[in-house]
Structure formats: C-alpha cells, structure tokens
Specification:
Helix content of chain A: 10-25%
Number of strands of chain A: 31
Order of helices and strands of chain B: HEHEHEHE
Shape of chain B: globular
Number of strands of chain B: 4
Structural class of chain A: mainly beta
Shape of chain A: globular
CATH topology of the largest domain in chain A: Neuraminidase
Number of domains of chain B: 1
CATH superfamily of the largest domain in chain A: TolB, C-terminal domain
CATH class of chain B: Alpha Beta
Oligomer: heterodimer
CATH superfamily of chain B: OmpA-like domain
CATH class of the largest domain in chain A: Mainly Beta
Number of helices of chain B: 4
CATH architecture of chain B: 2-Layer Sandwich
CATH topology of chain B: 60s Ribosomal Protein L30, Chain: A
Largest sheet of chain B: 4 strands, mixed
Helix content of chain B: 25-40%
CATH architecture of the largest domain in chain A: 6 Propeller
Largest sheet of chain A: 6 strands, mixed
Distance between the termini of chain B: 38 Å
Radius of gyration of chain A: 23 Å
Strand order of the largest sheet of chain B: 1-4-2-3
Largest interface: A-B, 35 and 21 residues
Distance between the termini of chain A: 42 Å
Number of domains of chain A: 2
Strand content of chain B: 5-15%
Chain lengths: 427, 183
C-alpha cells in the first residue's frame, strides 16, 4: 500500500515543530471537554509542497487551545483511516472518542493541493461534515485553521476563532515592532518597526487596517496603516499627545484621545483625519474609548471621580454614567461582540488582573491568575480574552476563557511582548 | 505597606535635607534670590545666556553652571509622585520654586517637563497620568511667574519605566523630569 510510505514520512515529520514566534501552553480546561481523535492526514504530494506540520497537527493544536476539546492519542489505534470506507467506529469508541476527523492531502496540477476532511460522530456512526479545499501550498496552515473552526462550530455550536488574527507589539534589542500573527501566534509579520515606543494598536472592523500610536516623532501620534498596501497616513498629530485610537463599528470614524486642552479628553475623528469633534468634557483624565458594538455608546476610563473607573456616554457625547463600582482602579474596557460582557483590568490586593463584568447585572468576576495584566480584548466569538502580562520579568501574551477555567500562556522566543488586540472574525 | 510609607518618609527626608543644604550652602549663585524674583528685573550677567559661563572682567574665573552644580538645588531634576496621583508634594516645593525662579530670571531659558508613570495599570491611562503630572509641575512654575512659552510638557507614560518588583523601584518611575533646552 502506497499510503504506508506516507505514514513513514509523517512520523518523521511529526516531532518537528515549526519555529514559532510564539508557542502556546494551556493551563486548565473546561469542565466537560469533547474527546476527539484526529488521524494524521495521508499525504500524496511532493515533500517540497508540504508544510512542516501536518494539517492534523495544526487542527489538534487549535482545538486543544480552545480548552473545550481533549485531543486523543491516535498512534496506538490499529486502523488509521483516511477514507470513509476505512473507518471502523468500534476502534474509536474503544478509546472513548466521541468525534473523529480523517483526511487527505493530494497534489493537484499547477502546484496546488487538494485537502479533504471529514468529521464523524463515533457514537452515532455518521458523518457530520465533509469538505474539500483546493489551495496553494502556502495556504496549508490557514486551511487547517479553517477546518478547526468548522469542527469547533459543529461540535460546540459557537463560531471558532482559529482563522482570525491578533496584533501585538514586540520589543526586542531596543526596537519596537508592531506585528500581526495568526491566532495561534504563528505566521507573525511585522507591520511597522521603530526605535521609539509603539502602543495601542486597533483593528479596523474589516480587518484591513490598523490604527496605532507611535512615538517616532518624539511624542505620541496616531497613524492608520493598510495591511493590504502597507501605506499609512497620520490620522492625528495635534498639539500634545495623540493616543488611544479605536474604530467605530462601521469603520467610518475613530474615537481618539488628545491633550489639546492640556488634559486627556476624548474626540471623534473621521477615518481620513477630517471632522475632529470633542465629545468628553471633564477636569480629569478621559481615555481608552471603546465603542459599543451598535456604535451608540462609548465606554471609557476616567478619573473624574478620583481614581480611574469605567464610564459610558453616548457616542455623540453628553453625560457619562459610571459602569464600574468594585475597587479603586478599573481601566481598559473592551466589549464582547454581542455587547453583553465587558472585560477590563482591575486592581485587586493580588495585583492587576483581567476581570469581566456582565453589563446587564453588573456582576464582576476576576479571571486571571497573573498579576501585572494589561490590554485585554475578546476573541471574536467572545469565549476567550487575550491580554498582556509579565512572566519572569518579561512581557508575555496570555489568554483566559470568560469562565476563567481555561488559561493559556503564549510564550515568545525572544522579545518583550505587549499591547495585544484580537482582530474581528472578518479579517 | 508600612515599609513603603517608611521608605517614602525616608526618601522625602533625604530629599528635603539635600535641598535645604543646597539652599544654605549656595545661596542662589547667579540666580536672583527667590524672595525678589517675581518683581526684580534688573539684568544680571547670566540673564542673557541660558547657561552661565564666565563673569565679565574676570576671564579666567569660571562660574559653575547652576543647573549642573551638584551643590545647587537646580541640579535636582526629578519631582516624584504617589501612585495614581498628580499632586506636587510639599517636599518638592523648594525644587519647583528654584526652577521657577531660574525660568523667571532667565526668560530665554526653555524647559521640558517629561511626565512618567510606573509600569502598573494601563499604558494609555499612564500616558494621560504622566501628562497630568507634567502639567501639574508646569502650573506650579506658572504660578511663580514662568511663562507658557518657556515650557513644554510631554508624557512618556510607562514607556520609560523600569522592570520593577517593589514599591521602592516603582516610586522612581512616578516622576516628572525637568530637562532644559540644549541639555
């Protein structure tokens, strides 16, 4: 059987882990994890076309990362099916599998690949999903993430986020670089780099642009950069500090913070840099504006009442209502896409931690087990929160599930990583 | 907590001692006495220059630049703040007054107040807090007669903060640095 040869190649490849900018370690897991077996995909293509990680490895890593799946060891199982006809359900039931994924990678003319996969229900012995992709060799990881998303959605009922992207700032050898990477930390690309600090990257809703703050002009100035063309414009370079940009949900405007009147206040500006309008008027610090998903309100951090707390006002301005009441220091609001939850950083006796507040009930839960947390943002499906923390004296990225059960550390190989933001599901 | 209070008291005492000594030992070298500063406008040798160099008529005698003279309070360049606060504490009044007087007597002198915050909490909030701190120092010298055109305020937020493990270290990062033009 020709397939045996491919097994051999597969087993040789499996222990080799591609050099990643970030590697992820999962701590804890959901109470009820779905046991899934993912048989290494058979490969019928030239080794030069094949990515270092088998598609099945990437799918397995994604599902494991979510904390909702227990990925079963498949090597001890006698049958190693790739086609539906080869599946012996009893083999997978015997290792307590509930779901089984099989698939193939085949070479197509014109240096393309055909990826086929099936998701099977072991207990009901039927097929849940079957899909084929015609891709370039460079799209293998992206395709694996899409397959993981499809499996995740089929089995949990929620949208997956493995095919989305994150952005963060990496400080290494005295240089700051704004990077964009896949949600698993792989495939990192530098968007801009500078020897002066870069902070506060914000995704445009369609995922094609980043707004960010650069100190390259020796003071904070807001830029908007296209991820498609690489072109960038100065969005705001007014007297004083220009910072904290966030896009309106329709992508036409940004809320920004200026110290034009000496004190940090919130303004709204069109995405082309025209039509500046001040919307907050206080004697304290008003910063970190965050739009509600319907675009009607802006949540923000203000110390108008003494210490920093989170407030809400209409996007057109006007009176602000206080939103956080527990503790003396609550900052950095970010809303889930359904607008029901707000994550933020809360100072507790044990340090600065990621917390989540139910906006309807006001109930607050502290989630993280780290103590120097900053910059939390929801995954597009609202299930995980990505944030920056300090581990061993160095900035690292971490993620925690909204119920606090699943915790992940994204360990980088070199730099000091900070200011993460999770992109929308559209990018 | 007690320790940190003790540390701040000690630090305050030390700083106060330093400033007192400086004032006593070198009563305002080329700088006009603070008690007269706001009214007095008679030209003095160093008024034309931001940096005092030599006294006219005595070519060989070098006058120490008061801004650099370690015995002069003007060589002290940092105002420290409490966590999440932007009030200039009483212990830094002599330092702020000395710089205000320098700016008044040297109207061509220009200064930048660079606000900083410790690394805890949010970068954006800390950027704003650093700005508030630099503006607080500006207001304090404005009140004593320094002009707006002499002063620029900027904030680095927590971007220049050190990697800290304790309050003594964090305290060093919560400050406004006073930097004169061409320094």
């Amino acid at each position: 059987m020709f397939k045996n040869k491919f097994y051999l190649i597969l087993f040789l490849l499996l222990p080799i882990i591609a050099k990643a900018e970030l590697t992820v370690e999962v701590v804890g897991g959901a109470a009820q994890q779905i046991p899934i077996a993912i048989v290494p995909f058979s490969v019928q293509a030239s080794p030069t076309q094949i990515a270092q990680d088998n598609i099945s490895t990437v799918i397995g890593a994604d599902l494991r990362l979510s904390g909702l799946f227990r990925v079963l060891e498949t090597r001890g199982v006698t049958s190693q099916p790739h086609a539906l006809s080869e599946v012996k359900y009893s083999d997978w039931a015997s290792i307590q599998g509930q779901a089984l994924t099989i698939g193939t990678v085949e070479s197509l003319p014109g240096n393309r690949l055909k990826i086929s996969f099936r998701l099977l229900d072991v207990l009901k012995q039927n097929q849940l999903l079957a899909m084929e992709f015609n891709i370039t060799p460079a799209q293998q990881r992206a395709t694996a993430h899409r397959i993981a998303d499809m499996i995740y959605e089929k089995l949990t009922g929620e949208k997956g986020v493995f095919a989305t992207r994150i952005t963060y700032v990496n400080k290494e050898n005295g240089r700051y670089s704004l990077q964009v990477a896949d949600a698993d930390g792989f495939n990192a690309q530098t968007v801009v780099s500078s020897k002066e600090p870069l902070i506060s990257p914000s995704w445009s809703p369609d995922g094609t642009k980043l707004a960010y703050v650069s100190f390259e002009k020796k003071k904070p100035v807001i830029f908007v950069q296209s991820l498609v063309s690489g072109q960038r414009i100065v969005l705001a370079n007014f007297k004083g500090n220009n910072s904290a940009p966030t896009w309106s949900p329709d992508g036409t405007k940004l809320a920004i913070v200026l110290t034009y009147s000496a004190n940090s206040q919130i303004y709204v500006i069109n995405a082309d840099g025209t039509g500046l309008q001040q919307i907050s008027f206080s004697n304290g610090i008003d910063t970190e504006p965050e739009w509600s998903p319907d675009g009607a309100s802006i949540y923000f951090t203000s110390n108008r009442g003494g210490g920093p707390q989170i407030y809400r006002m209409l996007a057109s301005g006007g009176d602000a209502k206080r939103v956080t009441f527990e503790g003396a220091y609550n900052v950095s609001p970010h809303l889930s896409t359904d607008g029901k939850l707000m994550t933020f950083i809360k100072q507790t006796p044990a340090g600065f931690k990621v917390a989540v507040q139910d906006l309807a009930t006001g109930q607050v839960q502290t989630l993280s087990d780290t103590s120097q947390d900053e910059s939390p943002s929801f995954a597009p499906n609202g299930r995980m929160i990505l944030y920056a923390t300090s581990i061993g004296g160095k900035g690292s990225l971490a993620a925690v599930s909204v119920d606090g059960r699943v915790k992940q550390r994204l360990k980088d190989t070199g730099g000091d990583v900070r200011e993460p933001s999770w992109g929308s599901s559209q990018n | 907590m007690k320790k940190s209070i003790l540390m701040s008291v000690l630090l305050a005492a030390t700083l106060a001692a330093c400033s007192n000594n400086a004032v006593k030992e070198k009563p305002a070298a080329p700088v006009v006495d603070s008690s007269k500063s706001s009214q007095v406008s008679q030209p003095i040798a160093s008024a034309k220059d931001d940096v005092a160099t030599t006294v006219p008529g005595s070519k060989n005698e070098v006058v120490v630049n008061p801004l650099k003279d370690p015995n002069n309070i003007l060589s002290k360049r940092s105002v420290y703040f409490d966590f999440d606060k932007d009030e200039v504490k009483a212990e830094f009044r002599p330092l702020v007054e000395a710089h205000a007087n320098y700016l008044v007597t040297n109207p061509n002198a220009k200064v930048i107040f660079q606000g900083n915050a410790d690394a805890r909490g949010s970068r954006e909030y800390n950027l704003s807090l650093g700005q508030r701190r630099s503006v607080a120092v500006k207001k304090a010298v404005n009140v004593l007669g320094a002009q707006d055109k002499q002063i620029e305020t900027i904030s680095y937020g927590e971007e220049k903060a050190k990697e800290c493990k304790d309050e003594t270290c964090y305290q060093q990062d919560r400050r406004v640095d006073i930097v004169y033009e061409n320094e």
